[in-house]
Amino acid sequence: MAFGKKLRFGAFIAPFHPVDENPTLAIERDFELVQHMDRLGYDEAWIGEHHSAGYEIIASPELFIATAAERTKNIRLGTGVSSLPYHHPLMLADRINQLDHVTRGRVMFGVGPGALPSDAFMMGIPVSAQRDRMDEALDVLVPLLRGETVSKKTDWFELNEARLQMTPYSRPSVEIAAASQVSPTGANACGRHGIGMLSIGATSAGGFNALASNWAIAEEKARDCGTSVDRDGWRLVGPMHVAATREQAREDVKFGLHKWLHYFREVAALPLAPDDGTDPVDALINSGMAVIGTPDDAVAQIERLQAQSGGFGAFLLMDHNWAEWEAKKKSFELIARYVMPKIQQLNVNREESLEWAKTNRPKFIGEAMMAVGVRVAQHIQDKGTDNIRPEILEAMGMGKKPEAAE
Fold first, then answer.
1. 344 with 387, same domain?
2. How crowded is residue 100: how many other Cβ atoms within 10 Å of its Cβ?
3. Quick one: pLDDT at residue 377?
């Protein structure tokens, strides 16, 4: 049996921390989560950038990545995402390129226009200009990160024969991926530059329905621009919390789900949380937005996404803090133990080997007994039966079990 590429697993860590907790300890738990994922064999962790609204409290994904890289061994670390209108492109490219060297190629560069209008407001950036500015920044960031020299002038930045001092550690450059929701903005950017796509709301109703069409837009744009896009660079994001039973999972999320729902319904600009007036857990499950259940439920969700999208390269758990810390860590562990091997077909050969050994057990046991019999017979021939234990003789059909002492 030929095996294709393994679906990668990771997390998209905004993060979401309620305002009644110690923020310093909350960020420390984010580091501990990435370390936990690294030990469990997760492939990627993407770290957000936000500057307002109080919940998503990492302002610099680059600082977080530099620290996390020192505490981990294998997991790749991405900006999820860097809000391009907030940074001069040369300065941002220089920081990402430095991280590429510092992490020995483990860094990834996720980009977007900025998710919180309140961030843009504080900096005097018109929300209506954010997507145009993302496109303008990306037009120069891609060649800069490949080591090219760039000159460009816009109404918000200027580059004069700009280039990075260090050539890229990763060749041709650090991996780049653009955020995509329902609109075609991200998909067009991916196709124009031949970069990866981050479908952040892949399990929301709108995001799920737009999966196939957004990928088609990226492919069409790539053809028009003479680039190419690869499904292996397409990452889908969705929330999950799993436990040993569905009942336990529902009990676990009572800790923090209501706070997360309040943030998305009352504060954040992304309509990720369904609000149909029913029980919120039922609403999240029935809409397909989230998995709150068992590893089998998680497998079914990923298979559903594969069927809808036509195939993608990585599934990223949207980190949410719905459950207490220990239950959250257990959820990540259960996904690594039971969901990853099912999706990645890690146990196919083991299962076939087990069934083969079971089917042929009578034959193998017979041959094993025959081999023992040959040695026993040889021993009897050499030494006689006096030195052979009675139970061995009985097992070989060369005697009977001694009667109980009279």
1. no
2. 22
3. 77
